[in-house]
Design goal:
437 residues; signal; eight-stranded mixed beta sheet; Peptidase_M14; binds zinc ion; hydrolase; globular; metallocarboxypeptidase activity; four-stranded antiparallel beta sheet
Amino acid sequence: MRGPAALAALVLVLAGVRAAPPPSSHVASGPAETTSTEAPATFRGHKVLRVVPSVGKQVLGLRQYLHDHPKVSPWLEPSAPGRPVDLQVGPADADALKEYLAQEGLVATEMIVDLGRMVEEEQRGMIDAKRSNIDFGWDTYHTLDEIYKWLQNLAQKYPKEVSLVEGGRTYEGRTIIGVKIKSTDQQAPIAFVEAGIHAREWITPATATFLINEILTREDGEFRSAVRAYEWHIFPVTNPDGYVYTHTTNRLWRKSRSKYSYFCSGADLNRNWPFHWREAGASAVPCSETYAGVRAESEPETKAMRHYLDSLIATRTVLVYVSLHSYSQLLMFPWGWTSELTKTHDDLNSVAELAVKAAAKRHGTQFKFGAISKAIYPASGSTLDYAYDKGVKYPMVFELRDDGTYGFLLPREQIRPAAEETVDAICTIASEAGKRK
Ligand SMILES: [Zn+2]
């Protein structure tokens, strides 16, 4: 789609976002952002505790504890000795958790003392920012509607370069909208970027929209020649149902919004892809944050984005694939499903090393890097492993800011610096991939 056709399509798409009925009678609320009937979660009295297990036995113990206590919600899952575990806990369960941690010799620090107040302050800040600045920008977080309207305006403003693309439909009937930014070279390889697959990681859609804006407006020659050598396909919000839900009802929602169990909704869309599905680091328990879904591709969002990516790969070279997540400040590459190294490990490792150097140069932020299974923990059914298996040479996944102060509630003052350093790193990945292809 290009120009006016794209625009007309978007108007229909936006209309569809509001009008389409949910496909399942289990869904209590329709797709519009304001019609949720569920009372918003306040997180009053909730804390986030950080512990750093020092031996494998403590890691396994924490995993078992989380399995047995689904009300304790991991922000960072137990992974390996020396790596932090962040646990959100409500007032009713805090004493029992603290007792367990003390028994296991784990020293807990209070990373977030009053989660309810932080969520409230974030909401207040967004309202204030919107009152004083009506334009779309990177000084505050935005709703799905605001992001989609901004993308629509871009297609209007840059009709020759930008067209809207559609990934497909979500469980609740929303459209997954992205942009295609053309290169002057018709045969240019493709760089694919997806963000927001985990709903609460708000810094990621913000960074993806910032990247789009930089590609279209940034003047410096080195940046332009690196990014203009690609055709970009960028989807800022690949889990729109979840993202809307974080704005209307539960700020800390991670998964999709499908309904398979009476008690718990959603699957982890980054554990649902059809490659070594649910073999490692993915849960069969519907209430788990890493629930892999009833089967590979059980989620319409996965199916839609997988089809989109497959059709690109079938016709063009997809050289770069970037997946944006938060938090922990990591840059990683396949494999996730196994601890074995890929055949191109050294090459991927050296690109990642250069990319994290580029990120650090901007604001001094330090990212660690490595293969997913080594840097954090095994995770199967992820977008990145799928893309690599399909022949994408440079798939990279970021865990953006921070490394354990605000976590998912990264203050809006940090949106710009976080996005700037990430775009620098992505630019390095693109330029290195171009040299090495
Ligand atoms: Zn994530």
